Amino acid sequence: VHPGSDRFIVPFHLKGTNRTAALDWSDHALWWEQRKCWLLKTHWTLDKYGIQADAELRYTPQHKPLLLQLPNMKNIKMTVSFSSVVFKAVTEICQILNIRRSEELSLLRPPDDHKKKKKKDKNSHEDIWDIDLLSRGPGGSGTRKCTVVLWLDSSRSLMEQDVQEDDKLLLRFKYNVFFDLNPKYDAVRITQLYEQARWSILLEEIDCTEEEMLMFASLQYHICKLTISSEPLDNSNEPEIDEVEAALSNLEVTLEGGHTDRILVNIFLVKHSTSWTKVSDLEFSSLPKRLTLKPYKEYWFVFKDTTISYFKNKEASHGEPIEQFHLRGCEVVPDVNVTDKKFGIKLLLPVADGMNEVYIRCDNETQYAKWKAACILASKGKTMAYSSYKSEVKNIQSFLQMKSLAPPPGQAAPDLEAMEMNAECFVSPRYAKKHKTKQLTARILEAHQNIARLSLTEAKMRFIQAWQSLPEFGINYYIVRFKGSRKDEILGISYNRLIRIDMSSGLPVTTWRFANMKQWNVNWEIRQVTIEFDQNVTIAFCCVSCDCKVVHEFIGGYIFLSTRSKDQNETLDEELFHKLTGGQE
């Protein structure tokens, strides 16, 4: 290979002959090991690449076998592009696996297991499904134990990130905005998303209450029953197709709006105590209370159009309100414990320097369902006169029924012998230790009676919906040092906001919404991220627990995903993604 030439010749001799074999080299390319880069611009000379005579180049296939662990913990062997950037490689992987919206997924290095340093036995009993063996031909075998748990850089190739042939990587949903979930097209996507949600619950990667854990357990039990049952569920009473599609559309709205956090800025506890009026105007007497020792004081609250106002009393409601909350652009978060008859709604209201938090308490399930539905529509700029209001109320009521641990009225007590599975398999170890097996089995079977008529896909969708409603869902936490601060703090990154959290107390300090972001950049020399928001608010921080590129990619990735719409086809603007996430290192 000559540095001044753009051509090279590789002679290949068959053993025992002097003839050069005519092989297919179309997938091969040059890899420059010292610089860790592919030489893919074939119109460039080697001299233009900066290659000197002492450089070592490797002529190697661009596609190599890789061991992938799916969200359901199944391992598959498949041939993957080691020369394409990870974003494009994941797109190709998802096309093979029939998973839509590949932009929501990425590749992750496996966790470092210090207890298992021994080499993996070649005759391991671990199940591996060889995709290439099923479709094209045999592939390699073996895995490599990595020492770092880290998302791969989406803007660089596998080879550039030291991933080698036959290494093991995890395929996971990275960005927690699951767009356009449709059972008609997304059977694989929904199943894998359900599995990732299920394992996050079982491994306690996300906190949930005992009531929620039992609800998740009952759904898992139901899904397992339907999966292994030879008798399909009777769907003779299913609604017409247009009603089904409408219900799925409403469920999708709920799925897209179920993101939460625990920011404590301004707290109001509001108790609902009066009847409903017309569909476009709701009123109730309330008891707001800030987090102080002062006694409750009753006010009159009015929900009209997309705002909530409160007054001294009902007679004063015709005048100016004491305060008014504009719900457009807010987040609506459930704060519910059906067993304890607690039906609360948390509103995260955008303000200039972050978000304020408001709590609303309702007396019963009916009031809660109507108020939450009204708040969800108002957050999208729609009133209760909108056509989906009634269906939204029904969806919320159905979800509350699913969370109820008591059996439906008139339902016989469950037969403990009916559960042919180990109840401990459906809850995390902490909850399994808390209850005896028979007690746990009884509670799961009681909760199961509320969802026993769900189809397999409906049950998985309900599980995903409940997962999304958990307070800590979808928030990634990193240790950072803010500019001008002398101590480390925690930065939470969600799909639409950044949360500054005090490390010693664990309490949120400030929240900034992506919608108010004007621009952001990274100083790669000092590894500092700077973000400018509306109203001259600017923050800057350096990452302590990870490289700033990780935070930069999460922020840019979520902004990229927010540009998606149903009017677009599924062709992604890859250039825009890399512009928002790649940086200028």
TrEMBL record:
Cited InterPro entries: Band_41_domain, FERM_2, FERM_central, FERM_CS, FERM_domain, Kindlin/fermitin, Kindlin_2_N, PH-like_dom_sf
Entry annotated with the keyword Cell inner membrane: no
Keywords: Cell adhesion
SUPFAM superfamilies from the UniProt entry: PH domain-like, Second domain of FERM
Domain annotation FERM: ranges: 64-566
Gene Ontology cellular component list: focal adhesion
GO biological process: cell-matrix adhesion; integrin-mediated signaling pathway
A Pfam family annotated for this UniProt entry: Kindlin_2_N
An example molecular function term from Gene Ontology annotations: integrin binding
Key word Secreted present: no
Residue intervals passing through the bilayer: none
CDD domains membership: FERM_B-lobe, FERM_C_fermitin
Residue stretches making up the PH domain: 280-380
Gene3D superfamilies for the chain: Phosphatidylinositol 3-kinase Catalytic Subunit, Chain A, domain 1, Pleckstrin-homology domain (PH domain)/Phosphotyrosine-binding domain (PTB)
PANTHER family, alphabetized: FERMITIN 2-RELATED, FERMITIN FAMILY HOMOLOG 1
Family membership: Belongs to the kindlin family.
Protein name in UniProt: Fermitin family member 1
Organism: Sphaeramia orbicularis
Species classification: Eukaryota, Metazoa, Chordata, Craniata, Vertebrata
